[in-house]
Design goal:
Helix content: over 70%
Shape: globular
């Protein structure tokens, strides 16, 4: 599925002239031209980013690409606002899948054992676990959203825990996108952002260990003890 998502992103770049020109400019290191081409899309630019968030609910791809691109083109607050809309829509679609789609289809989509473990974790872990799972990039965004729907997490609680959980890691990716032009890994701001990612990952691991989920359940569900980026986290 991730390969399909990457192919979809590549196809979108090829199909839209402004994005195609931006890609060529990026290859040549012309960062100002990249930003100009993306902004030349007008209102279509933000709509494409939101649409990519919606597509992510069924076709996973490296979400960090979209988050960083939004930050680079529209700045921190503009970019964060745009991707936040896209990821919330994606989360709502997956939640609806969990509440309304036949269970055999969900088991086939995510894997029966894997989905059952996440559903059980969500049922027992409560609010803190919902937030912690969003902080871990290694946990598939769509999987935990569908599991929350299947576990009948109250809609209001689901919405605010989703926002609180995904915004920190998303904000860091967007911020790094704003620094892409002339980025230096010795830049204190970049170092701080990277350290922030690891702090969030470490904090999420602690929350999970103190929740109702056991270490075995977390491990079997695909969450490892080593922090790392995932193609499915926003």
């Amino acid at each position: 599925m991730t390969v399909i998502g990457i192919v979809l992103l590549a196809g979108l770049v090829v199909a839209i002239p402004a994005l195609r020109h931006a890609a060529v400019a990026a290859v040549h290191g012309e960062t100002s031209e990249v930003r100009h081409q993306i902004k030349s899309l007008g209102v279509a630019g933000p709509l494409i980013i939101v649409g990519l968030g919606v597509i992510h609910s069924v076709v996973p791809y490296p979400a960090e690409i979209v988050n960083a691109a939004a930050g680079f083109a529209y700045g921190f607050f503009g970019g964060l606002g745009i991707v936040a809309v896209g990821w919330m829509l994606s989360a709502l679609i997956c939640y609806w899948f969990g509440t309304g789609v036949a269970r055999p289809l969900l088991d086939r989509w995510f894997g029966a054992r894997r989905f059952e473990h996440f559903e059980g974790m969500v049922e027992r872990g409560g609010v803190t676990l919902l937030i912690a799972l969003r902080l871990l990039p290694i946990v598939p965004f769509s999987l935990i959203s569908a599991a929350a729907g299947a576990a009948r997490v109250p809609f209001g609680r689901y919405c605010w825990t989703t926002a609180v959980g995904f915004l920190p890691i998303t904000a860091l990716a967007v911020y790094l996108g704003t620094r892409l032009e002339g980025i230096r890994f010795t830049d204190p701001a970049v170092i701080g952002a990277v350290v922030g990612v690891f702090v969030l990952l470490f904090g999420a691991q602690l929350i999970i260990k103190r929740s109702g989920a056991t270490d075995d359940e977390v491990s079997e569900s695909g969450v490892t003890s080593s922090p790392g980026a995932s193609e499915e986290a926003p």
